[in-house]
Amino acid sequence: MIVTSIQNKELQEILDLLPGLEMAEIRLDRCALDDEEIEQLFSGSDVPLIATCRLTEESQAPQLLELAIKAGAKYVDLEMEAPAAVGRRIREACREWGTVLIRSYHNFENTPDLPVLQSLVERARQFGGEVVKIVTTAVSEADNDTVKALYQDALPGTLVAFCMGEKGRASRLEALKQGAPFSYACLTEEEATAPGQWTAKAMQEAVYGRFRFVEARSLPMPSSKSFAQRAIIAAALAEGSSHLSGYSPCGDNESAVAVAKALGAKVEAAGPLLTITGIGAKEAGVRIGELHTGESGFLTRLMIPLLAALSLDPVRVTGEKTLLNRPLADAHDIMAAYGVRLYPESNAARRTDCCLPLKVAGPLIPGRADVSGKGGSQLLSGLLAALPLSGDKSVLYVHEPRSLPYLFITVDVLKKFGIRISSEMEGGDDFLETQDWSLCTGANFRIKGGQRYQAADFAIEADWSGAAPFLVAGAIFGDVEVTGLDTQSLQADISIMDILMEAGASMSQLDSPDGPIHVKRAPLSPFRTDLNNCPDLFPMVAVLAAFCPGESHIMGVERLRHKETDRAAAIEAMLRQMGVPVAIEEDEMTIIGMGLTQRLASGRLLKGGKYTSHGDHRMVMALRVASLAADAPVVIDDTEMFDSLLSF
Fold first, then answer.
1. What gap in Å lies between CA 618 and CA 624, rounded to an integer?
2. Residue 636: strand, helix, or coil
3. Total count of domains within the chain
4. CA-CA distance, 53 to 36, in Å (whole number)?
5. The pLDDT value given to residue 324
């Protein structure tokens, strides 16, 4: 990225300049800002800011830098010459407040030999520099090559090295080609902070040319399918009329509406409002010969236990497209624990590969069962919805739990419709202290029988999974604001916020937990994350990793094997075709990324061409976002799905 150095400006002048800049370095020793103005500047900016202040004997640099750090500076630049006590003081403040520390060396006379510069880089790292800045003066063209050689041993995104002076001018651009997270420019030639500095406009033209950055405001997010489908089915089972606001039609949601009607519920739609008059469901109270669940794997798994509880007779369940080839992992064993038999039509003898179409034969017998959650939460959500209708109490113990947040979404939605389920989680002190879902070793759900669904007015949350492509696009390619999301949501895919922040994206939210969320491009860093609880994020997080310089590690590969496609293989093939190094070992995917600025400056864009979505809409969205930095058009086989999913 391009950092514009700002000096000799008052606060309002700086604030007026920032909206047009990618990043800015604020020279606190040359800008007349008081303490309150420093607080206002660094706390209120979505533009990544670097606070720096040259040290002199009478300098107030440590105090000024600390003020900027506490106010929210993204980076602080401290010279190598700083006294050890000052260095420790600033380093500790950076750790406490989450500011990235730059340790910098400047030589205004010449360029030392390479071994000397290498020792300076090592020393800067020992002094706490997460980013090391080496700036020398080019006396000859060979000096540029000496500084360039430093990048050979540097981790991507951790070194900024270039030369000052007219003979070093080209090295400022070369730094970006070599993987520097940013390089420095000036507002105008008259305001240059060092000899040979480019203007920001000239450097932008040299690096970006006609590249089109993303800019979007107030994008409303669609309703969460996780909440919508649960609420639609609960309303269909309830006695009386329920009103569901915030509804967004899509294939899976419309399939849920069709299922509600097939059960006997009356559904009326008026824009984003659904009014559903339910059937007042009770055990063995429905006669239905066949049920079609569209292409929704969740809806299918949700309905299997409910059909066993509701229907007097066996029910044939059918689907369409990719759903017909997706195995219902562990469905035979889990349903057998409550007395339900499944009869697949195409592979009745292969119990581990149960697929649609199949017959569900009840009744659902209440009791206690210990089941594995390794295959996911969807069928277990169906049991949580169905067991309250049975005649006696039940206990569902889930070991090896995966996707636990989705089970608690189910419990939360059912509670709105009058169903009470108590739960206990296991995981020791670490889980209790951190509430990290991945540390949970088991969950126990106690369900009273003989309950009845009650009509409710329910506001359907916006979808964090659907928002992920827009948030990632903003973090990589520009500036995006989305609306309607709840930052206190139970949705597992809210993890995209933590992932983006760990990767270094600039994120902010104003007003309230459901206020607009603003994501702006900033220098990105590699990250490590576990997506076992939110596998739907995997394609988009993989694209994010492709633009984070260095090695990113994503756990949760095994959860992808039985989605709409073998999503792990599909993601790996997509990245390889685009020229992104990727490897899978057991449950972990490793992706070696490169920052957008380096890709543009060096011409190493992703590869365009013909790609397949494998019939998976999340792959379509990932391809659409990746295509924004491709060297040729990305042509997706399912163009109808492509055109309807994501555009800026």
1. 10
2. strand
3. 3
4. 17
5. 86
How far apart (Å, rounded) are the C-alpha atoms in residues 288 and 308?
11
Which strand (E) or helix (H) includes residue 625? helix 617-626
Domain region containing 271: 225-452
Judgement on whether residues 247 and 168 belong to the same structural domain of the protein: no
Helices (H), 463-512: 464-477, 495-502
- pLDDT tens digits for 67-96? 999 999 999 999 999 999 999 999 999 999
Asked whether residue 646 carries a pLDDT value surpassing 60, the answer given is no
- Shared domain check, 402 and 486: no
Q: Is the dihedral of CA 536, 539, 545, 547 positive or negative?
A: negative
The answer to the question of residue 457 being in a domain is no
With residue 379 as reference, give the H or E element that holds it: helix 378-386
**Mean pLDDT on 348-375:** 82
Same domain for 149 and 275, yes or no, is no
pLDDT tens-digit map of 234-282: 999 999 999 999 999 988 999 999 999 999 999 999 999 999 999 999 8
- Chain mean pLDDT for the chain: 92
Res. 644 pLDDT band, cuts 50 70 90? very low
Tell me if 218 is assigned to some domain: no
Pull the structure tokens for residue 203. Answer: 């450097």
191 in a structural domain: yes
What strands, in cross-sheet order, belong to the sheet with 159-164?
A: 159-164, 131-137, 100-106, 75-79, 49-52, 23-27, 2-6, 183-186
The whole-angstrom distance between residue 100's C-alpha and the CA centroid of its chain comes to: 21
Decide: pTM greater than 0.85.
Answer: yes
536, two tokens: 């739907």
Tokens representing 353 are 């590969």
Helix 378-386 / helix 297-310 crossing angle, nearest 10 deg: 30
User: Same structural domain for residues 473 and 605?
Assistant: yes
DSSP for 83-143, written as a single string:
-HHHHHHHHHHHHHHTPEEEEEEE-SS----HHHHHHHHHHHHHTT-SEEEEEEE-SSHHH
Active-site residues: which are they? 106, 133
Residue 458 covered by a domain: no
As a whole number, mean pLDDT of residues 575-596 equals 97
The partner residues of 425 in beta bridges, in order of sequence, read 443
Quick: pLDDT tens for 120-164.
999 999 999 999 999 999 999 999 999 999 999 999 999 999 999
Residues 123 and 202 in one domain: yes
pLDDT of residue 57: 59
Asked if 442 and 491 sit in the same domain, the reply is: no
The residue length of the chain stands at 648
Same domain for 366 and 324: yes
For residues 345 and 365, state if they share a domain: yes
Which segments within 284-374 are labelled E, that is strand?
A: 290-292, 315-318, 341-344, 358-361, 368-372
Last residue of one domain, picked from the residues 418, 452, 486: 452
CA angle 270, 272, 273 (to 5 degrees): 55
Check residue 211 and give its pLDDT: 94
Helix (H, G, I), strand (E, B) or coil at 400: coil
What is 401-416 written as a DSSP string?
Answer: --SHHHHHHHHHHHHH
